Amino acid sequence: MKREQPFDPSAALRKGRLRTPRESRVHERYLRHSKKFPNIWCAGCGIGIVMGAIVRAVDGLQLDKNDVAMISGIGCTGRMPVYVDFNTMHTTHGRALAFATGLKMVRPEMKVIVVMGDGDALAIGGNHFIHAARRNIGLTAIVVNNFTYGMTGGQYSPTTPIGARAATAPYGHIEQSFPIAELAVTAGAAFVARSTVYHVRELEKYIAQAIAKEGFAVVEAVSYCHTTLGRINHWGTAPDMMRRLKEQSIPLKRAKGAQSETGLSEKEEHGKIVRGVFVDRDIPEYTWLYDQIIERAQKAGSSSNPSPTRREEEVA
Amino acid sequence: MTAKPTAKELLPASGGLGGTLMQGDEACAEGAIAAGCRFFAGYPITPATQIAEVLALRLPQVGGKFIQMEDEIASIAAVIGGAVGGAKAMTATSGPGISLMQENIGYAAMAEIPCVVVNVQRLGPSTGRPTSPSQGDVMQARWGTHGDHPIIALSPTSVRETFDLTVQAFNFAERYRTPVILLMDEVIGHMRERVVLPDPDTIERVERPGTTVPPEWYKPFENFPSDVPPLVPFGEGYRYHITGLHHDERGYPTNRLDEIQPWLERVFRKIDRSLSDILLYDEDGIEEAETLVIAYGATARSARHAVEMARERGHKVGFLKLKTIWPFAEEVVEHASARLHHVVVPEMNLGQLALEVERVVGRHKVRRVTRADGEMIQPARILAAIEERAR
């Protein structure tokens, strides 16, 4: 009887017995080979899954890498742009959307993707988040929500669940949390969706829809931090927390108020992560509107609003 | 008999006696457009609001863009983002706003992003006296953001000079790939003067140098021979990384001391080696002087008046007006005051640039004339300080 060999996918690949779908290697065309890997994220982290979903979404949309910018703030998620082969900018804490707003104004033809963590987007950057949504400027905001400040060691963030313990909430967290997607809808975003790093194909689809959208588009990618918040709360390992995302999330159509026979009651829905597209509406995009302003200003001509600049010879 | 010009004839649109009646803030906005500024992001604040108002009107006329952001932090961030996109970009604010902008000014210094930050100084600290002038942000302009970094700061004395120095600020920003601060003050910003602006065709505009290397060779932070590596805008086929972390020549984060130290040396060297270009000042009567007056900004107007009064009284007074505040004109001041024992430094603060003058010429030689209550320094006080030596 032949002894069973441990499964080795690379050996199988070499022998041609296992065909890897094209999609699983797409990321290699989008990562910076001149940047030394491995990345800074902990083994088991969900941020890499979001990065993979983004590059596959960009690939699916067949965008030219030269026309894509990725801008981030500070934190674990803030480190994502350095690894991807776009026009990338790692800015200051909370301000990524404001930097991106300037870039989008000057280069409206570019696809500007902004990646932020929950603390970056909603605590220090909360004001920029709601105003970018209100303005409906054509940025794609991807918020990786791991419910904590991972890089600094598990302090409570605007999305930390009430009752959880955190490095700065040793007696339990007493603040309500922001529902990111719902906040973005209310603030005026053109497209808002939420998925998790477990539902990676769905996440990729939502990110692609968001990038394709003209207007401010938000995707909340629910993740976890097993090395800080998860450890402090004894939520288990990365696979345990991944499993929780699977078990504790429900599609939007089953959520409260949804017109569906399978809709859950309020009690059943409590504590669940609702996944889906929350809004997808057509409202005029900001840089497009500004182009109309330029047209109007130039049509009005210099006669009605003369430049105060006068040439020397005119007055000589 | 020649009739006196009517009020209507004196209005800007009529031409009248020639020139235009203009505020310093308006001259700043027009200077920015003349320099090629095509993106402005700002937030309303007295006494800098007029700059934003003029640019909201004027920028779209020339194909540029204006945006009012949600705060000053967002404004400077958007300006940096716009500059990375290739536009000449500016923001304008006053004390409270400039305090908020400091972190991102440091980002611009770290990432070497050309941009212009106008600070129309008002009396602080905190909300202070919003409609009153001050020169209280001189040291903040130099050291406001955390960490060692080079900076250029210019300070105009008149409406016309505000126009010229705004153009110059953009030119320095692009030439040296650095944020440049234009230190105005409430008097200069709100004062109206008759000005004749230069022919736009005669204005020197520095454009951002491009690179000649293909994208795969391009290093945005290279130790370039000129110490100023070209910055290619995003979206032009040169995909690279910008970060506020210490970085290597390609822009990737680094903790290697052999990459951090050369960067630090280069960014200071690029300013230091070009002082002859960057240091702008006016001087007169230095050679025969027994007393030297060093002034800048609105205070230089009082100082000029005091110097003239002193000369009428027979005193030998030299006058040095600094337009470039940072980097500090050490050698210029040192040379001008070498033979002298009496240097008068008037300023609308409790002695900020005077600290630099004292460092260069010696504390015992410097007579500070200070005021930090939101009112200008009268020429008589400066004259009295000049005459102290004569007594």
Produce the secondary structure layout:
The complex is a heterodimer of chains A (316) and B (391).
Chain A: H1 9-14, H2 47-60, E1 68-72, E2 87-90, H3 96-106, E3 111-117, H4 118-124, H5 126-135, E4 139-145, E5 148-149, E6 155-156, H6 180-187, E7 191-196, H7 200-212, E8 217-222, H8 229-232, H9 238-248, E9 249-251, H10 266-269, E10 273-280, H11 286-304, H12 312-315
Parallel strand pairs in A: 1-2, 1-3, 3-4, 4-8, 7-8, 9-10
Antiparallel strand pairs in A: 5-6, 7-10
Helix pairs in contact in A: 2-7, 4-5, 5-6
Chain B: H1 7-10, E1 20-23, H2 24-35, E2 37-42, H3 49-58, E3 65-68, H4 72-84, E4 88-93, H5 95-111, E5 115-123, E6 129-133, H6 138-143, E7 152-154, H7 159-176, E8 179-185, H8 186-190, E9 192-195, E10 241-243, H9 257-272, H10 275-278, E11 281-284, E12 291-295, H11 299-312, E13 317-322, E14 324-326, H12 330-336, E15 343-347, H13 353-361, E16 366-370, H14 379-390
Parallel strand pairs in B: 2-3, 2-4, 4-5, 5-8, 7-8, 12-13, 12-15, 15-16
Antiparallel strand pairs in B: 1-9, 5-6, 7-14, 11-13
Helix pairs in contact in B: 2-3, 2-7, 4-5, 11-14, 12-13
